[in-house]
Inverse folding.
């Protein structure tokens, strides 16, 4: 959708093994390798910074820089549909 915030959608590592689905409503779903929904939880965006808190209480963060998501030593690119 044209009016969606830029960060919504699926972000993928170059090799395709890590996939972050940043969903409307403050939720995310992360798949790793063959493990669908390996991590799920909430997120909060402040400027170009994203804070994640998974449903087990684990926290992490990342930054959007020039259309790329940098998160926990990973580089993720927005998947185009």
């Amino acid at each position: 959708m044209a009016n969606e915030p830029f960060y919504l959608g699926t972000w993928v590592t170059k090799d395709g093994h890590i996939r972050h689905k940043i969903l409307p409503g403050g939720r995310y779903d992360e798949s790793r390798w063959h493990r669908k929904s390996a991590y799920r939880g909430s997120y909060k965006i402040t400027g170009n910074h994203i804070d994640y808190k998974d449903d087990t209480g684990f926290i992490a963060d990342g930054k959007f820089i020039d259309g790329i998501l940098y998160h926990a030593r990973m580089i993720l690119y927005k998947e185009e549909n």
Observations:
- Strands lie at 9-13, 18-23, 27-32, 35-46, 49-54, 59-65, 68-71, 74-78.
- The chain has one domain: 9-78.
